[in-house]
Structure formats: structure tokens, C-alpha cells
Amino acid sequence: MINVNTEHIPGYTIVESLDIVRGNTVRARHLGRDIFAGLRNLVGGEVNEYTKLMAYAREQALQRMNDEAAKLEANAVINIRFMTSQVMQGCSEILVYGTAVKIKKD
After folding, report:
1. Are 99 and 8 in contact, with CB atoms under 8 Å apart?
2. Is 69 exposed, middle or buried (0-12, 13-18, 19+ CB in 10 A)?
3. For the segment 36-93, what is each residue's pLDDT rounded down to a tens digit?
4. What angle, rounded to 10 degrees, do the helices at 48-71 and 31-43 form?
5. What is the DSSP string of the chain?
6. How far apart are CA 59 and CA 48, in angstroms?
7. Shortest CA distance to 25 belongs to which of 100, 91, 98?
8. Is the pTM of this model over 0.85?
9. Among candidates 93, 98, 99, 100, which has minimal Cα distance to 24?
10. How far apart (Å, rounded) are the C-alpha atoms in residues 28 and 78?
11. Quick count: other Cβ atoms within 10 Å of Cβ 38?
12. How far apart are CA 88 and CA 7, in angstroms?
């Protein structure tokens, strides 16, 4: 599956636009990570525990979007966008969406 955040893929022609596809996940903070994050907040610096958590969530949401595109028999997703929102205290949602298309090599 080719994923791009642009309208076109160099070297390919879009032969069919299928539908909007999306994937999301909601992640909650972990008490153990909160303790380390709180300590890191005192001394400054990157909170690696949350960086890893959000990176994993983005990959999971992207995979779910690609799975939805594959069900439509797409071989690419264009115009991909990511959104993050807080759904409740300590829980964040990652949403990724784009347009599933069929492409062919030029």
C-alpha cells in the first residue's frame, strides 16, 4: 500500500478514486509512565514514555486505515492527514484518514 499526503503520486496515474478511509485508536496514560513523566517534568526534557506511546498509536491507526483501504481493493491512499484529540482526561485519540485509490504505473 502506497501512502502519501499529496494529491498525486509521481510516476503513477490514479485510475479510480474509491472512498474515504480512516483508522483510529484511543490510548490512555499508564500510571507507571505518569510517575516517570512527572519526574521528567521536574528536570525538563523529552518524555520518552509518551513519545513511544504516541508513535505506536499512530502506526496502529495507519495500519487500520490501510486495512480499510485493502478491503476496497485500493493499492494507495492519498491526501493522508493525522489528527489528535483528547477524548477524556488522560486519553488521547489518534485519527488518520485519506482517500483510497487505485493507481497504475506511468
Report:
1. no
2. buried
3. 555 556 666 677 777 888 899 999 999 999 999 999 999 999 999 999 988 777 778 9
4. 130
5. -EE-SSS--TTEEEEEEEEEEEEEEEEE--HHHHHHHHHHHHH-S--HHHHHHHHHHHHHHHHHHHHHHHHTT-SEEEEEEEEEEEEETTEEEEEEEEEEEEEEE-
6. 17
7. 91
8. no
9. 93
10. 29
11. 10
12. 34
List the one residue out of 90, 88, 3, 92 whose CA is nearest residue 54: 92
C-alpha grid cell, residue 80: 493522508
Backbone angles phi, psi at 5, to 5 degrees: -100, 20
Which pLDDT does position 30 carry in this prediction? 59
Take residue 90 and report the three cell numbers written for it.
Answer: 488522560
Phi, psi angles (nearest 5°) of residue 7: -80, -20
Contact yes or no for 1/76 (Cβ under 8 A): yes
